[in-house]
Amino acid sequence: MRLYLYLKNPKNHKNPKHPIKNMIETSQDILNLAKTAGVIGLSIVLGLLLYYLAMSVRQIFKIVQETRARINKLDELMKMLKEKIEHSTSYLFLISEGVKKVIEIAKDYGEKRKNKEDKE
How far apart are CA 110 and CA 119, in angstroms? Predict the structure, then answer.
């Protein structure tokens, strides 16, 4: 209140000390300034710590997302391979039967040719 009265009308005030010049008069004032500087410094350090913590959590979140995407792609690849193997095993029997028929036909053709050569 004194400061307000002094700044409003400095001539009528009983104690015309300049408030800024006489801010540090006692050791208590120095202690208060040190406390203020400490609180400001601590606030800055905690703010930076919180910022770096948030950035670290953000990077971890991105890594988890990328890992999930890769695992999903790997899962899709495994499913696709499983389906292809299942479908190919059903055709494997047909392919083996076809190969047997081709071998029989080739064998018959070879025997016919051999018989034809023997007759001549």
Answer: 14
Length of the chain: 120
Sequence ranges of the domains in the chain: 2-119
Residue pLDDT, tens place only, 42-71: 999 999 999 999 999 999 999 999 999 999
Token output for 112: 């016919």
Proportion of the chain in helix, strand, coil states, percent, rounded to 5 = 85, 0, 15
Structure tokens at 77: 């690849």
Distance (Å, rounded) from C-alpha 5 to C-alpha 12?
A: 9
71 vs 94, residue with greater confidence: 71
CA angle (64 as vertex; 59, 49 as ends), nearest 5 = 30
Rounded to an integer, what distance in angstroms lies between the CA atom of residue 115 and that of residue 109?
10
